[in-house]
Specification:
The chain has about 375 residues and is of the alpha/beta class. The chain contains 16 helices and twelve strands.
Length: about 375
Amino acid sequence: MELNNDEIRRYSRHLILPEVGLAGQKKIKATKVLCIGAGGLGSPIAMYLAAAGIGKIGIVDFDTVDFSNLQRQIIHGTEDVGRPKAESAKETIASINPNVEVVIHNTRISAENAFDLIAPYDIVVDGTDNFPTRYLTNDACVLLKKPNVYGSIFRFEGQASVFAPHLGGPCYRCLYPEPPPPGMVPSCAEGGVLGVLPGIIGCIQTNEILKLALGKGTSLVGRLLLFNALDMKFRELKLRRDPSCPLCGDKPSITALIDYDQFCGIMPEPANPGQNPDEVTVQDMKKALDDPKLGIKVVDVREPDEYQIAKVAGVPLLPLSQLPQRFTELDPNVQYYLHCKGGVRSMKALKFLREQGFKYVKSVKGGIGAWSDEIDHGVAKY
């Protein structure tokens, strides 16, 4: 894997590092990395891998660029809104380093295609944001003996590690044997994320990839690095392989990929999602607000900061986080329509109130986002 004169100039600051040199840069060029996700973590990972001269980068992402992505997903620009993320990422990588081969996989990684996607690559980097895909990526990497460079972010905190039982360390299941109950951990869309945080964690992941490619330094195998951006503090936890791990333990019971949605307790979407008896539409919500005689009250269960960004006139706020202490403010004999940002937290609020004996509660499908789309465009989307 030789370097041409243009590449020698491009990578000159690598070449004069004794730990890299010409031989090390050739190793970097010979390395093939699969980046699962081209979002917050995937953006800095792919861009810095390209700049460093990784020879082949695979991008797995089935999503399109949304305006709300631009605060942190720096591989995409304003003009890319609406485009497939994989295509946008490929274009940016080409502008950074045309010597890098980019293969885009505009698809969702699944138990059916994971082996085929991962097998051609040397290293896998996890830039995903959901538990089914994390467990799927982990299991496929362990079974194929590929290093899994892991990172995750939420609000102001992030973590990173390298899961590689074939290199003597644990796997993701050793750290998290069971996924949290569905909905227990809010998504970034619900809880928010500091825009620079995925850049910090993503760069740490990229650093680990380059060290693996070079065979230099002390990797994060067997260590979990924790970062708090507000406190500007790093902590480290020692990780060990669990001998009883069902995947990488002494007597593994998982020898093939499984149904990861089912494993994480995520129910399949109903064939006709509009028929959910616990949901009403934003049109139903508008009727309730327009006609008080119906006796239906609408309650916003988002957080106060969100209420300041956008609200529907006449709808009071009762945050989901305060509901266990304040549900007695509601009358169990009244019909309530509960709304949030997109319909997830309102459904959680519905389930909680049902457990307290409230029979007449409904969740507004699509939340205030659907209200902005279908009823009042003047209500801001965020």
